[in-house]
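Running log. JK asked me to keep both predictions on one page so they can be read side by side. First protein, sequence followed by its tokens:
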Amino acid sequence: MVQHSEVRAEHRPFRLPPAAPARVPHTVVMLHGFTSGPHSVRAWAEGLAAAGSEVAVPLLPGHGTHWRDLADTPAPEIRAAVRRTVDAELARGLPVVVAGLSLGGALALDAAAHRPVAGVLLVNPALRFASPLAPAAPLLRHVVPTVASIANDVADPEADELAYERTPVAGVAAVGAIQRAARRGLGRVTAPVTVFRSARDAVVPAASHRTLLRGLRRAPVQVVPLPRSRHVATMDLDRELLVERSRTAVAGAVQGLLR
């Protein structure tokens, strides 16, 4: 892929060391959402690092620059990049938890279906589209290159996701392919899954949540409501609750490996 623009400073990938020793040293691989970047999950990452997690936040291919880069990025490239990141962390010999927001949630599930992760954290994972036109994106991309931004579905008036100002329709087609792969793999996920679900979400429909719960047949699942938040809950009014319950879920997942 030829990149059209430099990565924005706010969306550069980052790694946070644990601020305190954990009972079981581990890494959390945290994945951001569609058209956004690491900035949107930084508070979540910092909250986990403060409790003893090492947190790696990659920049997904096609993101953090210009929407044209995302339009040129196929689904297999994005999926492969996530697996490489997870594989690199597993190679260190420590337990790995995968975490993701929206598209990042679908990618975390896709990784968990094919890699021996210790746990999964999901914030409003995108397994289905809200727009009835989105499934037609593979055809529409030849007629309509971009649509309006999907960014900043948040209740907090001070939050800014810093996502692309336009949404490339080719990118939507890639998301559809990632969603299908994640749905196919749900039955293979065995690690404990914690799902954070916002009370209002204009991006991911309730059908996505139902698909997730039906598909996770072999994994223990806990659903944590976020009553004051919208889609980008990692930057929203329930972020303290999100961090607190994520810390508990990560600790339980990695300590469960000792039993």
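And the second, directly underneath as requested:
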Amino acid sequence: MSNHAVFYLISDDMPVVSHTNGIYIRDTKGRRRIDTNSGAITCNIERDHPTVNAA
């Protein structure tokens, strides 16, 4: 793994999600990570949009 601050953007060894549980994401190598991205994405989804509500 690279020491670069944005290693996940330049790494050839990208993690592959195996499963999730709450705030945790497990990759196929068994490493557990905290999901730190979904909150920002959720805040950017238009509130009460018909397409979002239908999903």
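Observation for JK regarding the second prediction: The longest strand covers residues 17-21.
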